[in-house]
Amino acid sequence: MEKTKENVYELMQSKYIHKQKTSNTDRLQLNIRSFADKTYLTVGENCVLNCTINMGDCHIDIGDRVMINDGTTFFCVNGISIGNDVMISWGCTLIDNNSHSIISSERLKDTVVARQEYEAGTLGNNTDWSTVKNAPIIIKDKAWIGFNSIIMKGVTIGEGAVIGAGSVVTKDVPDYAVVGGNPATVIKYTT
Ligand SMILES: CC(C)(COP(=O)(O)OP(=O)(O)OC[C@H]1O[C@@H](n2cnc3c(N)ncnc32)[C@H](O)[C@@H]1OP(=O)(O)O)[C@@H](O)C(=O)NCCC(=O)NCCS
Fold first, then answer.
1. Ligand 1 centroid from CA 129, angstroms
2. CA torsion sign, 178 to 90 to 60 to 96?
3. pLDDT digits 0-9 by tens, 120-162
4. Which atom of ligand 1 is the closest one to the Cα of 148?
5. Is the CB–ligand 1 distance for residue 91 below 6 Å?
6. pLDDT tens sequence across 134-145
7. Is the CB of 181 within 6 Å of ligand 1?
């Protein structure tokens, strides 16, 4: 199946997605890089997903009553897990990988094919992902992520935590912590 915006609806009905009927994905843009015979995205009850999800051969799990607002983008090659009653505001990025190797000689393999891949609509398909660091992102129940925040690879955001607007989160956030800044640090605790 082609991975275009136009057939997102068709994709949502397919074996690749397991979505509860009560969730709204009308404005979800889902781009799956390569289709294997499996479920890529699981969405629980009463969610609204107005985001863009770009994913490789991995799985994203979204719980119940999760609201994800416009302009938020996921880049996922390892896995992203989101609990229940989570809010993710607009303009956020959740990225569970570095996209490219930090070693310049390994990155050259990406630059030499970038233009051809872009024109063929296969950007990233030839990347040697074994040279790219990645680690799963976990967002626990009742967390709230403020607008324009960035959640980096390997981060676990604790239950009920609040991520202040514009934060760059590079380390785990404790349960019920309020964090902010770049890199995000604890401002205070809430309930
Ligand atoms: C995180 C937030 C909820 C905290 O609100 P609050 O409890 O009223 O916090 P305050 O405004 O009293 O600020 C407390 C401290 O945190 C700092 N702070 C607040 N927001 C911050 C942020 N985004 N980044 C870094 N520091 C921040 C303040 O400067 C203040 O520091 P000080 O104690 O040294 O003076 C709020 O600042 C925020 O980011 N709101 C954005 C909400 C949002 O994204 N809404 C979109 C719709 S979902």
1. 37
2. negative
3. 877 777 788 899 999 999 999 999 999 999 999 999 999 999 9
4. 44
5. no
6. 999 999 999 999
7. yes
